[in-house]
Task: structure prediction
Amino acid sequence: MKKLDWKNENGEHFENHANDVLLPVYPWLLHDFREILQVSLPQTRILEIGCGPGFMLEQFSRVSPSGLTGLDRCYQMLTRSLASGRSGEAALVQGDACNLPFASATFDAVFSRGSVFFWSDLPCAFASIKNCLKPGGQALIGGGYGLNTPQEIIDAVVLTQAGRDKSGIPRLDTSSLAEIACGIGGTARILQAKKRGFWLHWQL
Ligand SMILES: C[S@@+](CC[C@H](N)C(=O)[O-])C[C@H]1O[C@@H](n2cnc3c(N)ncnc32)[C@H](O)[C@@H]1O
Result:
């Protein structure tokens, strides 16, 4: 089995994986976002952290084309997002979750999927997120395949995951994420389900 270097991936592997396997999942992640945050999307300025090759930017673009920003620390991920046209009119920014290059109170909402596992300093990242969110802003940060995704989609994804090497993905204690967030401000809760993953919903 080919061992993946998750930390230094240039995006080729992930883009193929997303196209081949995860594509049906992304609309359901948008569904989770809408259901959990209860925001009116066209009026929401959204930052996606760790946007990768742009599959969620594509979803957000359809409902909230203006005021959308995708950030990733990996330049090649951003060029894949642009070249594919998935990012639409979103602003693309290279940067690190732990030191977000945005002015205070820029965004209404932050979204991040499958990226938090790789952030080197979680308290720093969460402080940076709080700073760029407006007062009353919300963040949805997590990993996996969505809480409302139909079971047949989950089953198909899980089947393709069998035998995949995930040893390079650091393990996260989700309750410690909520503790870090609450320590910085606002309220935080973890929503999770077996084989589906989790969301941290943080409300300032
Ligand atoms: C598994 S991919 C997920 C991509 C996308 N969120 C999706 O679900 O299709 C993880 C992404 O997080 C990015 N990433 C990892 N650590 C990061 C950090 N500290 N700051 C910003 N982006 C980061 C990686 O470059 C990669 O594009």
The first helix runs from residue 12 to 22. The first strand starts at residue 46 and ends at 49.
